[in-house]
Amino acid sequence: MQTQTEIKQDNAERNGRLLLSEIVEHVKTLKIAQESGDDEAEESALEAMREMALSVSVRDGWRSPGNEGSGAEEYRVLLSTGGPACQIAGDISGHGEPDGAELQVQDWFTPWKTLEVTDEEGEALGYFVNAFCFEG
């Protein structure tokens, strides 16, 4: 018999997988639009991807109080909140672009867990986060 925490984690993972499949489909649509040169379809696909995000956040690293930050170093794209919650998190390169993407899930009072993804899913996450601007 599963514990309450295991049930919550399973629900969070199911939610994350559903959102991931939606991301993969949006990216497929985007690639088809880009390959065909259909600017309107491309913009529509990008807009659908951007509308999935509840919020986009960045933060800079640890520094001494009073010292100015060097710019954003990490990002988070929040896809769902509460129980269960889902986000994509990663680092930001020196050029203000996403560098890696991890799909993370959690439910109330459970820690964030990074889901393993296939190569195709990982590529789709990379395309997805590139639809957002992480510069000031």
Question: Can you give a write-up of this model?
Answer:
The chain has 136 residues and is an alpha+beta fold. It has one domain (4-62, 71-129). It has three helices and five strands. A five-stranded antiparallel sheet has the order 1-2-3-4-5, with helices on one face. Helix 1 packs antiparallel against helix 2 (39-52) and helix 1 crosses helix 3.
Number of domains: 1
What is the helix content? 40-55%
Please tell me what the overall shape is: flat
Pattern of helices and strands: HHEEEEEH
Termini Cα gap: 49 Å
Features:
alpha+beta; five-stranded antiparallel sheet; 3 helices; 136 residues; single chain
Please describe the topology of this protein.
Blueprint: H1 4-36, H2 39-52, E1 55-59, E2 74-80, E3 85-92, E4 98-106, E5 113-114, H3 119-129
Antiparallel strand pairs: 1-2, 2-3, 3-4, 4-5
Kindly summarize this structure in a few lines.
Helices cover 43% and strands 23% of the residues. The chain is an alpha+beta fold and 136 residues long. The longest helix has 33 residues, at 4-36.
